[in-house]
Structures are given as C-alpha cells and as structure tokens.
Amino acid sequence: MKKLILVVAIVATGLVSAKDGEKIKVSEDTNKKEVVQSKASQNDTPPDDTKMQCYEYSMFIPCTETFITDTQCWGPGSGTATWEDAWDCIQQNGSLAVDYFCG
C-alpha cells in the first residue's frame, strides 16, 4: 500500500511539473523529425545518463498525512551514476522517511 501511494505521489508530481513546462514553437520540419523519433522511442528506454538530470518527487507520510518533496539527481557530477541507481535511492528515501516520521 505504501509503494502504491509513493508511486501515485511521484506520478502526480510529474504531471504538475509537465504542465508548468515552457511551450516552444517548432517549424514543420522539426515536427516531422519528432514524429519519427517518437515512433522509434516507443520502447521503454532509460533516460540519457550522459548528462546530469534531476527528478523532483513527493513522498507521502501516512501517519501525518503529509507530503515531503525531495529531488534526486543522476549522471556525471551527481554522485549517482544511472537512473536505476537514482530510482533505488528514491525508494530507499521513501522508506526511511516513513520510518523516521511514523516510527
């Protein structure tokens, strides 16, 4: 149940962040290229690990019914090499936060 709540919180944070993104005008040539890329990227490919990227997410604390926001970065210079390592840290941080606040 805790993992489900954590996943819902992460998805909700991602959707809110996506709505706040900048809208960029692109030419018709760029649209054609993007369509080709999106068809090729239908497979589940991990994020690009060649540059540092950060992901902001929220952890739900059930005993206090609050959310705690955290940021996890991965890539060169972040101390976390890959997205898989970052995801492991996100899950561990969620467990530790619940243990800390709920005992």
UniProtKB/TrEMBL annotation:
Signal sequence residues: 1-18
Protein name: Uncharacterized protein
Keywords per UniProt: Signal
Organism expressing this protein natively: Chryseobacterium salviniae
